[in-house]
Amino acid sequence: MTDFRRQWNEACKAAGLASIGRDTAAKILAIVYELGGERESFTHNEKLKADLEYIQEVYGFQGGMTPDPFVSQNVRCFCNEFEDYGTTPEWAKKLMKEMYDIEI
After folding, report:
1. Of all helices (H) and strands (E), which one includes residue 104?
2. What is the DSSP secondary structure assignment for residue 81, as one 8-state letter?
C-alpha cells in the first residue's frame, strides 16, 4: 500500500492536482501534533507516513520553506479544538479511521 500511496501522491503532484486538500492536510497535522507522533499506530502506518511526507513537501513544512498560510492557520484552529474541548474531536476520530484505519 505504501508504494501505491507514494506513487499516487507523486502522480497527483506531476499533474498539478492535490491528492490531499489543504483543509485535510491541516487536520492531519493537528492530529499528529496534538496526539503525539510517537504513537505506535501513527509511526507504523505507512499510508500516514507517505501522506505526511507529501504534506511537508507540497505545503511547505520542510526546513527552509515557507509554510502555506491557509494550512498553518487552520492547524492552529484545529489544535485549539483539541484544547478547548479537552478530548479528541469527532472529526479527528472519523478522519483517522476512514483514511488510515487508526482508532483514536
Report:
1. none
2. H
Local confidence pLDDT in tens for the 104 residues of the chain: 558 899 999 999 999 999 999 999 999 999 999 997 678 888 889 999 999 999 999 999 988 889 999 999 999 999 999 988 888 999 999 999 999 999 98
Q: Give one word for 89, left, alpha or beta, with left for phi > 0 and alpha for psi -120 to 50.
A: beta
Task: Give one DSSP letter per residue of 14-79, joined into a string.
Answer: HHT--SS-HHHHHHHHHHHHHH-TT-HHHHT-HHHHHHHHHHHHHTT-STTPPPPHHHHHHHHHHH
Q: How far apart are CA 99 and CA 73, in angstroms?
A: 23
What is d(CA 8, CA 1) in angstroms, rounded to the nearest whole number? Answer: 10
pTM for this prediction: 0.91
Rg (CA), the chain: 13
Counting every residue written for the chain, the total comes to 104
